[in-house]
Amino acid sequence: MKVFTCVAKCTNNFIRVPAVSPGPLEAILPVVIAKKDQSFLFSTVKPLPAFPIRIRDIKINVRQVNFNVIENFVIFDLEISQDVVYVVDGRVTVQGFSDVFSGAMPVPGAQKGMEVRADVEVEIFYNSSGSSIFEQVLVNMSLQLIEYRNIIL
Question: Cys bridge to 153: 25, 35, 95, 135, which one at CB 3.0-4.6 A?
């Protein structure tokens, strides 16, 4: 007796299946192994080139997030860019900054080679004194660790 296995690949939410299946169907599907929500608080000081009359706005953007999964931990590097809009001598001025924050999250069940799907939110709370801005950067992360497994349909 000959047994044939036909492999189907899952891309996003679609499973591509061959038109004619000669036997059992096997699909490679993503399986959520672990989930973790955690917040981090980082402190920074930003120097401005002049004494601002007031700070109008700080616009933030998450530029890049890198993850490294090791046994029971997920290590991250988060790059954030900021545009500080402030008023000096009646003129509106914009100063750009970029920061990299690093940290680690304990995630039971994490193994090297797992894929990380993340939702990252960043909030900045600030106070200014002279030509310096004192910031508290709150990073909220929601992670899912994904492993691809062969599932027989």
Answer: 25
Given 3-state DSSP classes, what are the helix, strand and coil percentages for the chain, each rounded to the nearest 5? 0, 75, 25
pLDDT in tens, 85-131: 999 988 999 999 999 999 999 999 999 989 999 999 999 999 999 89
Q: What is the pTM of this model?
A: 0.76
Cα–Cα distance measured from residue 108 to residue 118, given in angstroms and rounded to the nearest whole number: 16
Q: Which of 149, 135, 144 is nearest to 45 (CA)?
A: 135
Distance linking the first and last C-alpha atoms of the chain:
20
Domain range summary for the chain, segments of one domain joined by +: 31-147
Picking from 58, 63, 95, the residue whose alpha carbon sits closest to that of residue 79 is 63
Between CA 143 and CA 78 the distance in angstroms is 14
* Distance between CA atoms of residues 16 and 9, nearest Å: 6
Q: How does DSSP classify residue 134?
A: E
Distances (CA, A) of 130 to 44, 46, 47, 91, 133: 15, 11, 9, 17, 8
Q: Phi, psi (5° rounding) for residue 7?
A: -95, 130
